[in-house]
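During the second half of the funding period, the structural biology subgroup turned its attention to how the target accommodates small molecules. The most pressing case was N-carbamoyl-L-aspartate, which had performed well in the primary screen but for which no bound structure existed. We therefore specified the complex as follows and requested a full 3D prediction, including the ligand pose.
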Amino acid sequence: MKAKIKPLPEITWDELQQLTLDDKARCFNRSDRPLHILVAQQFDRPLLQELGDMATRIRQVAKSKQGMDFLGNLLSHKTAMLYFTQPSTRTFLSFHSACQILGMRTVEVRDTSTSSEMKGETQEDSIRTFSSFSDVIIMRSAIGGLAEKMAWMLSHTERPVPIVNAGSGKDQHPTQALLDIYTLQRSFEKRGGIDRKTVVFVGDLARGRTVRSLAYLLTNYERVKQVFIAPPALQIGKDILDHLKASGSEYELASDFEKVIPEADAIYMTRIQDEWDDKTGDSGKVDISKYSFAAEHLKLLQPHAVIMHPLPRRKEIAVEVDHDPRAVYWRQVRNGMWIRVALLAHIFDCSDSIRDYHGS
Ligand code: NCD
């Protein structure tokens, strides 16, 4: 039996900080569903399956004008705030498109130089202001844990609208991990699903928040092996390895990428995130050839394996690789939109209506 956790509106900030991520995840849910979407730990295997199935159902419904009209009516009474103070192309556009598919209105702040934060307003007051004009706040910030802080703060106000973390500092990017899982579910649909697969992560694993969230989600599957290949200073964090150990997941830290390619079912490439370097940092100088997927690597890769990347890429995947059917990073982008539609439908409790429509 798991210990009882106080719901978010009743817990103090200090108490919340004492909790493990798993317990925090329980705190961010209301009864059976997530209220806020803040960390990957909020998604268990049944929910990952449900959201993936729903995304596939939605893309089928969306094929016809009648279906699109139906979807576009579901949340036409709701408004989403997109608060993205860190650069974003795909995540912003896919949330924006997902909101539009469900008929939601959107308002956005991307540049704080045009908002009252320039006049010294705190982020807490900004978010509280946004909550007056919206029914959900989708936010990306360079500050780790900010989405969590704002969710806690709002839960103590009269308008505790859901917060969706669209990337927070170097810690988590749960909705990217969702789309990555959805891509893996689809890729291995006819090969027994994600169980027993080997997933190889390559690049900047210390600061790649997408990797950190996906590594957590993969522990929901049976006997998945995770291999981490990174320059020594940019290797995956000890907190993730501790979690893998505690959950009994198999993992390996490796340095020879070419040697690992033939055993991979999925290779997850990432760029070096040198924007996080401090004045003395020099990760921009890392020789990325050892952490890059070149065209000649394709012949080492199993025929059913997939090459993934959260994007944006720099040079860590050769452009020639894009034409290979095993390169699924452009598919990830499209999957991201559909899984975010499914997520918003779940948050606003309209998944049953979509199921009924699809079955009719
Ligand atoms: C990633 C991010 O912002 O964390 N991009 C994304 O959301 N698809 C990865 C990156 O910036 O390298």
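Two results from this model are relevant to the next phase. The first strand starts at residue 29 and ends at 30. The chain has two domains: 8-173+335-354, 174-331.
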